[in-house]
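Slide 14.
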Amino acid sequence: MLQVNNLSLKFNTRVLFENVNLKFEKGNCYGVIGANGAGKSTFLKVLSGEIESTTGSIVMSKGERMSVLKQDHNAYDEYKVLDTVIMGNTKLYSIMKEKDALYSKEDFTESDGIKAGELEAEFADLNGWNAESDAAILLSGLGIDVSYHEKLMKDLSGAEKVKVLLASALFGDPDILILDEPTNYLDIEAKVWLEEFLLNFDNTVIVVSHDRHFLNKVCTHIADIDYGKITLFIGNYDFWYESSQLILKQMKDSNKKKEEKIKELKDFIARFSANASKSKQATSRKKSLEKIELEEMKASSRRYPYINFEVERPLGKDVLELKGISKTIDGEVVLKNMNLTINTNDKVGFVGTNELAITTLFKIITGELEPDSGEVKWGTTVKYDYFPKNHDKFFDNNYDLIDWLRQYSKEQEEPFIRGFLGRMLFSGDEALKKVKVLSGGEKVRCMMSKLMLSGANVLVMDDPTNHLDIESITSLNKGMENFKGALLFSSHDHELLSTVANRIIEFKEDGKYVDKMMNYDEYLESVK
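Slide 15: predicted structure.
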């Protein structure tokens, strides 16, 4: 068990949260949620002891082990993959190294033998004899092939390193498992495997994630950071949302009734306070008025942008046709004889481990890249716009936000541009920020503004949820659901795929692909 007592955290004059009292108990999975900057990752760092709180204490049950998902992806570059996983249990790994050092001594003494015996006993208690096979099972579940186990971490890709570090955190059956964004960079299979692992995990899990489906699948509780405090809700993310909205509605309804009562009492007092026959009643109502207290309605730190893609004109019958599209990059076959017809009502979710193929296809159909062979044919009524995975080139200038967005707007007047930026959470002086200094999430919101202003009836979006918080993802999700044109998009967000896509295309290796006219959940069921 992990207990939080009277915890507060302040940075200068800013209070992230204060007087927090929580218990994280065995058998439960706690999802920590909150707006960007609310302090989710910081709270996990306080729990793990990486940073100190301003006040209060963290108490862990005696003898329990905490494991934390490491965020420095290059910290283990000189270690083998299998060793990196086993290092997740630092005590076991240190015993293994100490044993190896003893047995390699040329002058092995009697005291060395006694020490080795003690280490062997500890090693057995920690299930050391199964360490390598347990580590291999975790790596296999996350999609790291056996051929990688003896490689150095520096020889792996970024996504592969993330999987190894996740396996390291899960290794050795920790009593308390702390995971900050564990689904980042995971493919479909690895994410499903992780969900099943956590569902069967018997100890305590505390996790931060922007993935709504993941939070719904694995969480038994939600710890919500808002209003300068942390509130614990029983249930998953959807239950938290419904509960929090109900509580907010009840508070508003209660205040409305109180305000009506206050007005009624004030009217009576104003009319009859000077009337001798009614003076006692007026005095009584004054006392009643003094007892009425309105619920304090603090402003939430959550902010939802307004995302709505309006089309200038409806699509005709012909949208997009690809004939025999092939592309090889650096000797690797990325696309091979791809034939595809996009229909008026298609919302196509592109998935699979071969993300290079998806990005390459999107670049070819939007004219950023030429195919080696094949033809791209757009319909005459089509107006498309493109959200590329890497959009840094759009911000390589010295514009402020107003001038940046003005480039893509038919309406050039500043009040219109400011109004549009306000909908995307850039209000007041924020609209004068230079685009070069924007965060990843702010740049994505800018790109969404560009797409909304385009009036396009076909949208091509390559991983649009990257860098977004849950609130922005929720707004984007609604905007994509309500879009009246054709949509081609890739995403790792299960909720987005399952609620938006009516057609799934999965890319395999060597340019192969599967095209199914079904939603995402149906597709997953079909390929289990």
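Speaker note: The first strand starts at residue 2 and ends at 11.
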